[in-house]
Amino acid sequence: MIKIEDSRLRKIVKTNIKFSNWARTFECIPELYFEPENDDDIIKIIKLAKQYNKNVRAIGVGHSPSDVACTEGIMINMEKLNNIIEIDVEKKTVVVEAGARIDILNECLWKHGLALRNLGSISNLSISGAISTSTHGTGINFGNLSSQIIGLTLLTASKGIINCSANENEDVFKASLCSMGALGIILKVQIQCESAFKLESNQYPMKLNDILNDLDSIIYSAEHVRFWWFPHTENCVIWKADRTTGDLKIQQPSYFKDHIVSYHLYQFLLYITRYFPSTVPLLTTLMFNYKFSQPKQVINASYKQFNFDCLFPHYTNEWAIPLEKTKEALEKLYKWINDNDVFVHFPVEVRFVDKDDIWLSPAYNRKVCYIGIVMYRPYKKPVPYKRYWAAFEEIMRSCDGRAHWAKAHTMTAAELEKSYPKYKGFIELQKSLDPNGMFLNLYLKRHLFGIGDKDYFKAKL
Coiled-coil segments, which residues (predicted)? Predict the structure, then answer.
């Protein structure tokens, strides 16, 4: 049992706290749950963990739909380390604490005439959590969120606090930009921003075959392109966005259409399909016709354009494949769904990301297509998904895919070593910075080292 003698630590600790991720698919009860308010608090927590040889995991918002954040040891909630430390309008940079929420940062930057150049589908994330799992948006010439970081401060187990950037401790920098917390705790980051800009987005329906037959042209037809395919149909919705100086053009949401029907009624009907799964294709067609069959144009602030509503909790799986494999992968997935007695939810989301040089980024050294699938959990109830997941991952593997680190997946250490040229270097660095494995949990041991939790992969499939 851990005995806390430090009076400060006693003020910021809780016990018997159950942590659950946003999707309610993984949970844990850490032995101690800390809510630090400054770097000194975290240093004291790490000292305590060393004294008792306890595992430590830092968490942000907890949105990652996997067990990447879970621990039975010491959990550190970074929510209160959320200060925006410095905004340099001339250099277009911002320094923030690791727990700063991206959605709040977006608003603050906009007031100073700045913006992040690209964002993911949601911004209710901590900056450190987003970059630690290589969170991404879309745009074939735009990298993931980690690629916008130009410096960070990392608290390690063996070497204390390390400041790193492209010019200082470069190896640590390139490894820590997508490290899942395996190297230490990120304390603060410096982000390269841009002048604030507006985006004009155009969303309209297309058929899957038309997209695949003109894929290369479509991918490069706008700065940001993504599309959603509705399984069991040929229907897709494509979204394109480019920078503009035009006047704002905002479509106000309809409470009835967007909230009552597209959220509450849809969730209720999904619940019904748990008992009548063969009705899923009909429901998908009805939702497409009701919600997505008409063109839509919007001009708004960039950060308001990138994000969209993820609706309710769901199981999700997402992999990045080489860009040139996009058509092959989607044709294989289309064929598998139609050839098998399965009924899966929409959407299949397809996004495009530029290559980078971040050691464990799924886009390391190659432009990629991210393909993501979901199975909604109406009212947080379970739905069958494992057969779908197994087939999807088999297709992704056949296309030289790399799994999204935030999502539950079954990539093994042997597969990672084969797929990532910098894998061995990352493992060596991890052992150097964390020789006793303080920052490793079951997720990291399972995927990075191939140890423990041996039945996980069998259970997932």
Answer: none
CB 352 within 8 A of CB 140: yes
CB of 430 closer than 8 Å to CB of 447: no
Q: CA 417, CA 177: separation in Å to the nearest integer?
A: 18
Residue 461: the pLDDT is: 42
**The predicted structure's pLDDT at residue 452:** 78
Asked if residue 96 lies in contact with residue 108, where contact means CB atoms within 8 angstroms, the answer is no
Q: Can you tell me the distance from the alpha carbon of 436 to that of 318, in angstroms, rounded to the nearest whole number?
A: 31
The two domains 7-77 and 198-403 share their CATH topology (first three levels equal)? no
For tokens 């399984």, the residue is 231
Query: What is the predicted pLDDT for the residue at 459?
Result: 55
Structure tokens at 458: 């069998």
Nearest to 22 by CA among 439, 316, 269: 316
What's the count of helices (H) and strands (E) in the chain, helices before strands?
16, 21
Determine the Cα–Cα distance for residues 399 and 330; give it in Å rounded to an integer.
Answer: 10
Parse the chain into domains and list their residue ranges.
7-77, 198-403
- The DSSP code sequence of 205-248 is EEEHHHHHHTHHHHHTSSSEEEEEE-TTSSEEEEEEEEEE-SPP
- List Cβ neighbours of 282 (8 Å cut-off, separation of 6 or more): none
H or E element at residue 252: none
pTM above 0.70, yes or no: yes
Rounded to 5°, the CA angle 72-73-78 comes to 105
CA distances from 211 to 139, 172, 216, 335, 371 (A): 16, 41, 9, 16, 15
CATH code of domain 7-77: 3.30.43.10
What residues contact 72, with CB distance under 8 A and at least 6 apart?
28, 29, 30, 31, 55
Which residues in the chain land under pLDDT 50? 461
Domain spanning 198-403, CATH class: alpha beta
